[in-house]
TrEMBL record:
Localization annotation: Cell membrane
Keyword Thylakoid: no
Source organism of this protein record: Microterricola pindariensis
Listed Pfam families: BPD_transp_1 (PF00528)
Protein name per the record: Spermidine/putrescine ABC transporter permease
Annotated InterPro entries: Bact_Polyamine_Transport, MetI-like, MetI-like_sf
CDD domains documented for this protein: TM_PBP2 (cd06261)
Keywords: Cell membrane, Membrane, Transmembrane, Transmembrane helix, Transport
């Protein structure tokens, strides 16, 4: 076991403290400025007020942007859950020509720069599909998000499937269970937590996406990240942006905490 000297412990502790401060102090500044009475974000905050919270909750553009983000996120998550799980089972349970290539192609969208994916899909929608009369519109944005959300589900489910023992499924079949009964009562409960965790991460990734959305969103449709980005060019709207960002920060803790709990092995859970 590696033992560190007192000086090394203090030095590492200081580095960790600086890194955490660099990451989280800006978030606290956003939260504090959401209660700033001034229209433009300032520091230090001299006068506190809830007026911007009231305006944010009654703002129709904000509610429309949140609704769009939720709809797109749920749609992309549904696509990711189905396709990601099917591909994970195919790669784990079967051996076929090009297996490693399929694995690479599934993971590749999350590694590609978002601008590349956005431009590619935008060209496909505008230059190939629309000329033949196919208007993708809102559905195209869901498919665009689904391309990289699949990776979240795929990685979680595949990792769990690799740790499962086939003996339990074989015993279920030996006892007369049908393939569907074996999957529903034996297989799915064993990877259900990874399935749910992957879905939560996929939704969070879609909800937060900006670059791909810029290239694939229909005209006049704003998701919440697009709305925030557009408002950043208007200094007088900074307080509203801070309120929305604060709500997103607080809401982000929930899926992260749940996905971490679900991703643990049952024996490691409290």
């Amino acid at each position: 076991m590696l033992r560190l000297s007192l000086a090394a412990k203090i030095g590492l502790g200081a580095i960790v403290a600086v890194a955490l401060a660099f990451m989280y102090v800006p978030l606290f500044l956003v939260v504090f400025n959401s209660f700033n009475e001034a229209r433009i974000a300032t520091w230090p905050v001299t006068d506190f007020s809830l007026q911007w919270w009231g305006k944010a909750f009654t703002s129709e553009p904000i509610r429309a942007a949140i609704l769009n983000s939720v709809i797109v996120g749920l749609g992309a998550t549904a696509v990711a859950l189905v396709l990601g799980t099917l591909v994970a089972f195919a790669l784990q349970r079967f051996t076929f020509f090009g297996k490693q290539s399929v694995n690479l192609l599934v993971v590749l969208p999350i590694a590609l720069p978002g601008v590349v994916t956005g431009v590619a899909l935008n060209n496909t929608y505008n230059q190939i599909l629309e000329p033949i009369g196919i208007q993708v519109g809102y559905f195209g944005m869901i498919i665009a998000h689904g391309t990289f959300c699949i990776v979240m589900v795929f990685n979680n489910v595949l990792a769990r499937l690799r740790r499962l023992s086939p003996n339990v499924e074989e015993a279920s079949r030996d006892l007369g269970a049908t393939p569907w009964q074996t999957f529903r009562l034996v297989t799915f409960p064993q990877f259900r937590s990874a399935f749910v965790a992957g879905g939560i991460l996929a939704f969070a990734l879609s909800f937060d996406e900006v670059v791909v959305t810029i290239f694939t969103a229909p005209p006049g449709v704003d998701t919440l990240p697009l709305w925030i980005m557009n408002q950043m060019a208007r200094p007088n709207e900074a307080s509203l942006v801070n309120v929305v960002a604060t709500v997103v920060i607080l809401a982000s803790f929930i899926p992260v905490w749940v996905s971490q709990r679900l991703s643990r092995d049952p024996a490691d859970r409290d």
